[in-house]
Amino acid sequence: MADLEAMPEDWSSALVVVAHPDDMEYGGAGAIARWTAQGKNIAYVLACRGEAGIDSLEPSVAAPLRVEEQIASCAAVGVSVVEFLDHPDGVIEYGVPLRRDIAAAIRRHKPEVVITGNFRETWPGGGLNMADHIAVGRATVDAVRDAGNRWVFQDLGLEPWNGVRYVAAASTPMATHAVDITDSFDASVESLRAHKAYLAALSGDMAEPEPFLRSMAEAVGQRFGGVLATSFELLRL
User: Fold this and answer.
1) DSSP for 135-170, written as a single string
2) Coil, strand, or helix at residue 122?
3) Cα–Cα distance measured from residue 63 to residue 49, given in angstroms and rounded to the nearest whole number
4) 18 and 79 in contact (C-beta within 8 Å)?
5) For residue 234, what are the CA distances in angstroms to 114, 173, 176, 177?
6) What is the pLDDT of residue 67?
7) What's the alpha-carbon Rg for the chain, to the nearest Å?
8) Per-residue pLDDT at 204
9) Distances from the Cα of 107 to the Cαs of 145, 147, 152, 157, 158, in angstroms?
10) Cβ contacts of residue 40 below 8 Å, gap of 6+?
11) What are the respective helix, strand and coil percentages of the chain, to the nearest 5?
């Protein structure tokens, strides 16, 4: 595999758009912690509240718990603005309603960078991705253009925003860039650990934040100077 390029950092504001609580914490949160430490302004928007994500908990119980954990998770990496769009967990559909909601968030927050999750069909290594991730990632890419088109979603009552310079998708098999998270790795671990109820319901490697995240960071680092790193697929507008 080719070496990864360094992610551009000549920007001051970003919006993270992902499907579920915990999505950005499995890899990308180390970059968020690095960037907030640099003084960049970053907000999160989640398509759902993660209500269908814990088999042992009824959705009505899981949703408020996972919201609370996501807010704590964001605080661990320096993010205080966290919004939820209330699409249904597990059956999020790509389409105009989802694009509309994300475009509205982009117009409200006016980011220079939009960060989302893996919208490809597989993960690095070949594991199958899930429909919610794909739908939200693809809708986010499209919503960036929607947000800048004054003739699309006029009913939102928000001025169009053409200031997005980059879209960055975390942990895709088509990664092009990486971020050194050596100094922010511990914060990324704490961010994932904040999802206590979710982790308690898991088994296997993903239930152990530090070794799981370290193995991922070391693997990316093999293509990025040997440091602890996290990867992104960078799309330029």
Assistant:
1) HHHHHHHHHHHHHH-TTSSGGG---------EEEEE
2) strand
3) 5
4) no
5) 10, 12, 6, 7
6) 98
7) 17
8) 83
9) 11, 6, 12, 10, 6
10) 11, 12, 13, 14
11) 40, 15, 45
For residue 101 the two structure tokens come to 């909601």
The structure's pTM equals 0.97
The answer to whether 64 touches 21, Cβ cutoff 8 Å, is no
Q: Are 161 and 218 within 8 A, CB to CB?
A: no
Q: Give 46-62 pLDDT, tens digit per residue.
A: 999 999 999 999 999 99
Neighbours of 155 (CB within 10 A): 7
Query: Residue 200: CB partners within 8 Å, gap ≥ 6?
Result: 207
Q: How far is CA 177 from each of CA 3, 99, 139, 224, 237, rounded to the nearest angstrom?
A: 9, 26, 21, 9, 16
The string of pLDDT tens digits covering residues 167-190 is 999 999 999 999 999 999 999 999
Report the half-sphere exposure of 56 (CA within 13 A, side-chain side).
6
Q: What is the pLDDT of residues 98-145, one digit of tens each?
A: 999 999 999 999 999 999 999 999 999 899 999 999 999 999 999 999
Q: What pLDDT does residue 226 have? A: 97
**CB 115, CB 15: distance < 8 Å:** yes
